[in-house]
Amino acid sequence: MSEDIKKTINELHIYEKKVLKELEANPDVTPEEIAENQNMDIKAVMSAAGSLASKDIIEVEKDVEEEISLSDAGLKFAQEKLPERRILDVLVDKKEIHMKDLSDETGVDKKEANIAIGWLRRKNWAQIDKGVVKVTDVGADSKDKLGEDEELLNHLTEAGKIIKDRLSDELLDGFKKLNDRKNIINIKKNTSHSFKLLDKGEAILKEGFTIKEQATQLTHQQLKDGEWKDLQYRPYDINAEAPVIFAGKKHPLRVIIDEIREIFLNMGFSEDNGEFVESAFWNFDSLFQPQDHAAREMQDTFYLKNPLTCDLPDMDLVKLTAETHETGADTGSIGWQYDWSEDIARQSVLRTHTTGISTKHLYNHEPPIKMFSVGRVFRRETFDYKHLPEFHQVEGLVCDEGISYQNLLGTLKEFYKKLGFEVRFRPAYFPYTYLSTETEIYLEEKESWIELGGAGMFRPEVLKPLGINQPALAFGLGIERLAMIRYDVEDIRMLYKSDIKWLRELPIDRGVRL
Fold first, then answer.
1. Selected residue with higher pLDDT from 234 and 349
2. Taking residues 111-140, what's their average pLDDT?
């Protein structure tokens, strides 16, 4: 025990020692007295006391007193009487007063009279019958008898301030009534602290110690003069537990978005962001999606009322797109064999994917093109563990002479390799690409393959109207799905919940780095 006490003494801060010395001289000493006697700041005293308490050397007791006083409105009521008392004084003589005449008959303004009616009924001084206020027997008996709240008003007027805990039961009831009103009573909380030595503290004082300034940081001069040899140093316990620090960090979705952006930029891609609000032309028609396609239905797409429509692009592009939809134009296709509508193409939608950014980019830029986008998309999905109406989508686009399906697979393999995944491909169908594929990644912990994204070569029906005569490949994936895999989340909603515990405990660096 003695060795432990000596070790504790050696590790005490000088402020902790000063507090203990004061408690040794006077067990009832206050923090303010310690600060004055030891020439310490009160904050330093409380900090030292908190440290001593954490080591079970002293106990810190906190006492909170509520000091009550009258506000300006309360002083006014004390001088002029409470509004229900002023009404009662008149009502006892008149027996009854019609509600509409209450303010004129009693001199109480209408706003206070309305409040007073409630208190008259609460105190059973009056009752209301068909718009007439009538005095009760209790009210008549109370004409010359002050209530508890009125007694407290008078008491506070004389005393100025009173400690709430020192009120009698009767005045405490009065306090409750006055406190139910707004802006009549001021309540000020006064907090005081006291210290009590525990057994460990008694043992430390019995062992004894000296108070000597301790060096916390050496100067160049002290090292040069050798003065450091005579200084006293406070030892530190290297085995002591350090406090948990929750460092600021990026949200997991932001981490993945930044990682994907860095991959694309390192692979020589440029970035395009597009707009949240887009025309149905760019979101659907430019991708050779027929205007009666199920994905365009209200249950799948958010259509906007403001703006109700969007402008169409160059009319030559619109005309070529219409011909492609109707007859296939010169693409070698027969199209969809229907009458294409400009009105439908003008409809405003919240973009349902980022692929529309690719077609607009192809139209506005000359090949060779290497473009990517990372953005939020919107669909009328039902909330559940794997669906949200808002989520993020990644889009990659490459267009140049000689681009082939093999280039698509090679680009995908390199992209997912940089994300840290082993990939494989299987055939798939997408309305605006041919050939098409789905990318699957292998999860070792689950020993299974998981589909993560789709890709393909843009169809001539997409490229020809845009004026593109070179082949183009495109691929994409959902960031939320990648985040669920990366952070082992089973419910997609977890990524958007304000779960501070989960966010704090999430490692800053998780998954494969670039």
1. 349
2. 82
Residues with Cβ within 8 Å of residue 324, at least 6 apart in sequence: 288, 331, 333, 335, 461, 464, 465
Least confident of 199-203, 410-414, 462-466, 509-513: 509-513
- Asked if the domains 2-63+190-214 and 253-505 are classified in one and the same CATH topology, the answer is no
389 contacts 380 by C-beta, under 8 angstroms: yes
pLDDT in tens, 435-473: 999 999 888 877 889 888 899 999 999 999 999 999 999
Query: Kind of pairing, strands 132-135 and 126-129?
Result: antiparallel
In angstroms, the CA 17 to CA 41 distance is: 15
Cα separation of 190 and 163, whole Å?
10
Cα angle 57, 61, 66 (rounded to 5 degrees) comes to 165
Asked: is 253-505 a CATH 3.90.1150.10 domain? The reply is no
How many degrees, rounded to 5, is the angle at CA 278 between CA 330 and CA 262?
Answer: 95
CATH of domain 2-63+190-214: 1.10.10.10
pLDDT of 203 higher than 80: yes
Right CATH number for 69-186 from 1.10.10.10, 3.30.1330.60, 3.90.960.10, 3.30.450.20? 1.10.10.10
